[in-house]
User: Fold these one by one.
Assistant:
Number 1:
Amino acid sequence: MSAPGTERPAAEVVLRVEHLVKHFPITRGIVFKRQVGTVQAVDDVSFELHRGETLGLVGESGCGKTTTARTILRLEKATGGHAWYKGQDIFTLSGKEMHELRREIQVIFQDPYASLNPRMTVGDIIAEGWRVHAGVMPKNRRRARIHELLELVGLNPDHINRYPHQFSGGQRQRIGVARALALEPSIVICDEPVSALDVSVQAQVVNLLEDLQDELGLSYLFIAHDLSVVRHICDRIAVMYLGKIVETGDEYQVYDGTAHPYTTALLSAVPIPDPAARNLGNRILLEGDVPSPANPPSGCRFRTRCWKAQGVCAEAEPELVDRGQGHPVACHFPQVEFDPAR
Amino acid sequence: MATTLTRDTVGGRPVDPAAPLLAVEDLRVEFRIDAGIVQAVNGLSYTLGRGETVAILGESGSGKSVSAQAVMGIVDSPPGFVTGGSVRFRGVELLDLAEPERRRVRGNRIAMIFQDALTALNLVFSVGWQIGEMFRIHRGVPRKQAQEKAIELMERVKIPSARERAGCYPHEFSGGMRQRVMIAMALSLDPEILIADEPTTALDVTVQAQIMSLLAELQQQTGMGLILITHDLGVVAEVADHLVVMYAGREVEKGPSLPVYHRPAHPYTMGLMDSLPRRDVHTERLRPIKGSPPDLLAIPSGCPFRPRCRFAADICAAKEPPLAAVSAGRVSACHFWEEVSRERSGD
Amino acid sequence: MSDRRRPDQPVTTLEELEAEPIVGREGSLYADAWRQLRRRPMFIISGVLIMILALMAIWPSLFTRVDPRDCNLADSLLRPSGEHWFGTDVQGCDYFARTIWGARVSITIGVLVTAASTLIAVVLGSIAGYYGGIVDTIIARITDIWFAIPTILGGIVILRSIFSTRGLLQVSLVLIVLGWPTMLRLVRSAVMATKEMDYVDAARALGVRDFRIIRRHILPNAVAPVIVYATITVGVIISAEAALSFLGVGLQLPAISWGLMISVAQNRILTAPHLLLFPGAFLSVTVFTFILMGDALRDALDPRLR
């Protein structure tokens, strides 16, 4: 969140994802299932998350951002690639080691109405992590700690025995945050944490997440489709399209110095809440729909909707490298100059 | 598209050529449920002119969708009841019309599209058949011709390969395409007003841009009025000529877009604007509105926004603020609207 | 709130964010359901009737002092009167006593079979629904095949061919064996739906093990349709036992069962209608009561309570 040009000290990398691949098989048949195709949900995704940083993973539906998060958490089994945490590859850990690791990487979900078990009290929901990880929180300390956590996320600790349906959406989301923090993780994956909330409540939760990050030194992997929120909260952003990362950089590089045509189109589509900024004339409208991830285009996956596409785009997949803009772009014809008018 | 219906009458009554396309005045809708009576819409008024776009902006519980349903006459009744106010379409009072006449207006003169096309469309019939149904039923057009008209409409809403895809079923289309199908159905009978209830909320932002652009184009071609129901301040800023901000069933601010955005006269509107991050500038720290939208069964006394308001004073608990005239065509329901609007002029 | 203006504060102070309880909803969802149920006439009526039937089954002597087996041939086929409220049957046994004692068999079989079927269905259905894959395929296909066996017909064949004596246990066993497939499918689909919920993923991300996830997260939330169906099933099983006994392949004399009584009554419908009337009425009311209860529960346990 600093102005362009100021150097931030290179912080330690806490999570390094390398060539992550997740394919879902498409099967046919009732008794014996045959595979007839694959959905290439995540296809060779690599990025680094630094300590204390918020890395945004953005894109539209079907781009693979949620699948990426779920695979890192091992809620899905990766098809290929590595995810390095503290020198170990998450995907090769044994059951016991993974169980230990879960304390350090936690998650907040999108839907405040589906992410809390309606039959458990708030206190039980928050304390569940301690039940399955012996030794983290001695039993006699638990109640006090639940009170502390509820206060930390801005809720009334007296409500420890209430049920989720007695709270509003924003409050439930806070309960989800408290649950994630109970095990004192170092990384929190936020999967669209504010998308399902009322507009007036979103900013509350965003501020809460920022304050907690400062206070507890957390690193966030922030998955979202709302580009305005992402610009605000994220230090760096990776833009995804059809299973691949097409551009990464900090707030100014990606939003003001946009290089990839998809990012350009994506940003131009986001309406600005100011009638004076009406730019329907300058907006880039993409044609048609996103291609099926079961059958992605050859070469550059965006080429079927890209106004700059040429022959080479169908033949060679562009690599995610810095092509002179100062941040990595996966495009054969990226926008090179910084355009302050945008 | 030629029509045998005469457009000089509504429900058998003559229209008033001087009247606006739609004039809603003091509309009230209540829901009677086990737990009590909920005043879902509590005195909403606005007008819509030809070719204009009015946005009704609000969050959950604001009553924005219910108000649109009341205009269409599709409020679930029971438990909902329109208990007061007037809805005049070209000068003719819709709430006085009998149900058969109301039905002739619905879909025909005033059409509506919804948030989730998948639940609004019938999954067992092809899209061509469903669009064609509008012509078969309302205009008595024979099947083959209806199919042709359906394909024409699908092309008009820019569905690629319309002829080939007319036989496809709703679930075979993407979200954005389904929304276009719904728009095609809504436009089939050349309505004079289109009500869009959160039409793009469930769509990706690039698809949203496509759909909003399509609506703008269609509106230009036909001159129809558009009522846009949404919570998205960005979308409203892009397309609305006027907006009505609703909170807890009440109208809290109303006026032309630019002045309302630039100098809001109600703390809720101002709070919303302030709490938004933007994609074109860096925002250092967001300024949220504290608290949550109220439970409609337990609305605070006086001004419903009071518990969340930083301008609140004792009078706000005692007396519900009347709609004060801020300027020509602008109102605000706040005791301190002058102070609120002064805040921005310093910028 | 009496200060005219507050300085702009960050929103994380406690007072500003006090969770206000949503009016009218307190306590767990079960407590909510109970409160809703209490007010429904359908629940109250069926609840009272079920309690009466249960009492009849457990302590028939509360309702009649007469021993149903104390029969006097001289009193054969008497019409209902002050002495014999329901009259007597062919052998001169008090019909009221027999009808009351018949409840024991019906309720016992109904509850026993339903409980056992539900247990099997919950265990296998949870495993199939939660783990999916090959385990699910095997269980689901076996269930499908089993499902194709028609209940009454299959019951007749099995009871006739396998068992020489047919008592409560044998009939129960056959009905359990034929009844679990439907229940299993229900459990399986409820588990599959619940498995997709975010809170299950959250539990997995916390490191909660499978068994605890099923026990704490999935079953409590999937069990509502099962409860409803099980309640209705009690009625269905009672009816099935009566049918089998009626056909002569269920319980045998001297067991007292409404089905048997109806079977014996067939030949004398015109001469002694009371023989058919009373057990028939009791059977119908019993079955209907359980179905009514199931309906009442379904409305109350509907997840749209959320």
Note: Residues 321 and 334 of chain B are 5 Å apart (CA to CA).
Number 2:
Amino acid sequence: MGGTVRIFIDDRPVEVPPGTLVVDAAKRAGVDIPVFCYHPKLEPAGMCRMCLVEVGTIQVDPHTRQPLRDVEGRPVVQWMPRLQTACTTRVAEGMVVRTNTLQVQEAQRAILEFLLTSHPLDCPICDKGGECPLQNLTVRYGPAESRFDYADKMRQEKRVPLGDLIILDRERCILCGRCIRFQEEIADDPVLGFSDRGRGMEIITFSDPPFASYFSGNTTDICPVGALTTTDFRFRARPWELTPIPSLCAHCPVGCNITLEVRPSARKGGWDILRVMPRQHEAVNEIWICDKGRFVHHFATAEDRLRQPLVRRDGALAPASWEEALERVAQALRQAGAGAAGIIGDRLPNEDLYLFRRLFEEVLGSPWVTMDPPVFGGEAVARYGVGVGTDFGRMGRGSLIVVMAGDLEEEAPIWFLRVRGAVRRGARLIVAGGRPQKAERYADPVLRYRYGTEALVLLGALRALLEQDRIPPAVRDRLDGLEVLRARVATYPWEALEVRTGLPRAAMEALAEAVAEAENVVFVFGREGVVDGEAFVGMAADLLAITGHVGRPHNGLLPLWPHGNTQGALDLVGVRPLPAEVPVLYVVGADPAGDGRPMPRAGFRVVQELFLTETARMADVVLPAQSWAEREGTFTSAERRVQRFYKALPALGEARGDWEIFVDLALRLGAGWRYFSPEAVMDEIARQVPRYRGMDYAALARTEPQWPPVGTSRELYFGGTARPNEGGLGRVWPTEAEAPGARWPLFWKDPEIPPEDALMVVPVRRLYAQGTLIERTPHLRNQMVAPTVGMHPETARRLGIAAGQPAVLRANGRALTLRAQVDLSVPPGVLRVPAQGAPRAEVVEALQIEIEAGVRDGAVLR
Amino acid sequence: MGRYILLRHREIPDLHRLEVYVRHGGYEAWRKALTAMTPEQVIEEVKAAGLRGRGGAGFPTGLKWSFVPKDVFPKYVVVNADESEPGTFKDRELMEGNPHQVIEGALLAAYAIRAERVYIYVRGEYRSVARRLEAALAEAYPAGFIGRDVLGSGYSVEVAVHLGAGAYICGEETALLESLEGKIGHPRVRPPFPATYGLYGKPTVVNNVETLANVPPIIARGAAWYRTMGTEKSPGPKIFCLSGRVRRPGNYEAELGKITFRDLIFGEEYGQGLLGEGRSVKAILPAGASAPMLPASALDTPLDYESVQAAGSMLGSASVIVLDDTVDIVWAAYKMVRFFQHESCGKCTPCREGTYWLRRVYERLVAGRGRPKDPELLESIARQMAGKNLCPLGDFATSPVLSSLRHFRQEYEAYLRAAAEVAAPAGGR
């Protein structure tokens, strides 16, 4: 296409790309055309008829190609006989649009009067009241009163649960179908639909369980009336009572921008988060969030939050003053000195991560500090992560997205939406994994390999490229280690690769071909089933590097990190093995005991937490920390975007910010720390940590206008309740490969591959898996995934386990008490366990199974 | 040659049987097209004949076919047999009595646009009609008229019958396509039109049953012959469905523009006058409930597209319903409004809400509880609906309201006077 066309809207000239909808062109020209069913993120439906306008074409003299003019010199316009819907009409050269003539105004009044004939007008008790497009447009365009006899109004059900999270009020519904189209076009969970017809038409859900979708909450944002409400927010507050605070979601790698809407609450005896809304960031989450991000906030104000320090007295944890607790900790740390060890969770903000590491390395002189959970691939991401400016929202034809060893929708729901959007615009998706997932609907092709052979699959692709010598010369010049790679890859014959991966050679060649020919390649990698993470990510990096898909926007590695600040934890703490036994162990925001991860034995344990987790129960001192809602800070998403979040609630009880506790301890240990706020810490990070150069709070708070413009109550166009971004768009730190003239080193390591007939334990991450935080949200209770050990029927037979049987599995020194679930989607020879059941995928060395009847030892393994 | 071009089964017994149809020249046009004509020539012939769509809109059929892109596959022909307009029963008789002519027409349309699949979308209530069509197909397939490599031409085409689920809206071509795809019958936004984006998003021609029944004679005998019938702008024969207060209701085949309403209602070979003695025509519904009603003064209007339009209505599907002087016009308008309210698909606001509101006002009016401003209110609601809908149904629904108010306002006023008399004593107390 290219170029623009020039049209006139209310006599204003507007230049827009061909194919633009009149309603969008008008918005760009600053003209509001009222809409209900239209939504800039959805395909136009043309059904509410609110956006009717006059459309005409300037008549052109066929000979001179000049506009025909009337006696007064004005261009002659041929008007269409009927009003046209601006949401379905696309611009064309010479088009003339009028949005405010008497005829248009009459139509607008007519549509509003019609809509209100079946509307209950229960605004005083409606959650949407105050931010309702129907209210707003009626005030601006509607008739002052209706001629409809209220007694003739059709009565409909006021409370129709569409599931555990969303309730439909059929009387308020104006049947615009935005929710249906969102579920079909964006979420691809087409579980809503219209049923019946005429005035009896209604929205229904036809899935079982009803409204089965991770994205259902978004329908309440884009509902232009109060028909769809969440069970969380319904009847809890009027929107004008809420204070919106910009924040971030920390529960997956995406880094969704959100708004915490807070208000004093008698129920909570203080302030409360009434609802969580998306905050627009077109390069991160657009205007969407997943239901976990929307509803998980209840942990922040949960009854059982720790509110004061606890110390162990006579074998039991008992309340204590901060002074006593901190003095005990300081004393223990002083004695332990360089022997002390620290574990810090990857949901803590950057400022706290940075100070924790300094506390150990500089104040105590101890190298024993690590992040939790441990992840692999950090170095590869620093070198070959996605380039600055990468945006799924701008990817389409010519782009390839590869998803490997992870479940896109379960682990990064909003990336799933955005990748699907890219596919709709023409991007290609390849999904490689050990089991089926939703994203495979659009995959071309799906590569189903044996868990644990990820590196070999990529090695096969590398082999194909090297054999065909498909390395662009400009790329070859920048590569280091190409000959080593070539020589080592050649030692893996195709037959062996085929047998071990379970993939035909052609599949690996197809992957190579797709990567080589694509203009852009983003390689999304997870951890599911991965045994040798270093080799896997290294091969992925090599694949991108030798095809030139690194060091620029829309290209590079993108990790499916477990949480919202895993990247920050890698940047500021890192992964280090700890000794098996230490004098003092200090665990912050992590629950290795509860999550089944190893933890050093320690004579004295300090746990800093929100809740009395399993790890905290074992502690000698428990320090109550503030949740992210009670303080400010920054998180770094897996796209390496450093973003700010703001304080939304006062501290709960005596809880303190993690960074404050570290400062207090450092002072007690004699360090001359002077930090008065997280901002001061970030100032130092921006000076000291090269990746974070220039990222002070002011820089991170900068915003720029986003398209499409979204809803404030004055925003008549969009009408949704997503918040405009007033908290900052953040900044992405550049990868090493992006530096001018940077060399691109290649990686090599002989991958460690599980034996062919091995039994493997594979932890699988699910969005609604059990966890300390999510369990505090009652609304999600029914959707939580029951912890089971999933296995193929063949495996179950081999192990002598029946479906539904509770069993204790003892393997590799850990015991898992789970119900067996027989599931054809699990490959044979694999025990699928919840992600918190095992630290990583591994080969089962010795398995002991206890079934109710007794113990069966050594059920065949190899 | 008999007097019928379309309703030929009236002269030829058992014409629905393939052997009889073939004996009387059936499938000769099909053979001629496949062996001696290119698809383009078929389109040109139909264009030259001036055939206009018989479903109601009267759009030139050949032109419609010529809009289909040549290089996109697959393509589809869909036969609109969702005959649902009140008082319309011509397609039913054609499909029952002369099914092969409809099928042959559909095959010619498929060949003309190079479609390989034809769907006949039959109104849900027409189960027996669908069986008749299926029986005809079961004969035509083994005879080599349908299927792979038809008559050795190398061209392959499949025909399937699909029953609708009972919604008037599915007679609208895009709602029909949605329904055929298995979705709820909601009209689509146009453009794009079915010719480029039709069934399953592929180029599609949707034609009415009667339209397609005109195609075999055009191909067999040529456009020039066809144009000897009817008028310049409305050539050819047309089936008129006559019902209402007439002595002999039924389907009548006549040339377009050659007879008037009066001929149709009173002619000896047509309706033979009104039921009962001493009755007179009060109003005519020229196209079921959809087109504005005309007063008796329009009786001498010739029955072609242009003339009926000039008289203030539409020929539409030519289903003429006659209302005599015993008919209560307000009641009749209420019946029609109720019909549209029941059949509105609900997709667009003005139609969904407007038909409901109209119905509520009519309800109180006919119940003797009308309010003095109700005629103005009805007119205003109808005008608010008109011209603002995605498909024609919302505009159709205003026809009985606006036309009855225009021609028979005094009947509304009679209702209001009666209502006022009932209310007066209460008001005086």
Note: Strands of chain B lie at 76-81, 117-122, 158-163, 204-208, 237-244, 250-255, 281-289, 294-295, 319-324.
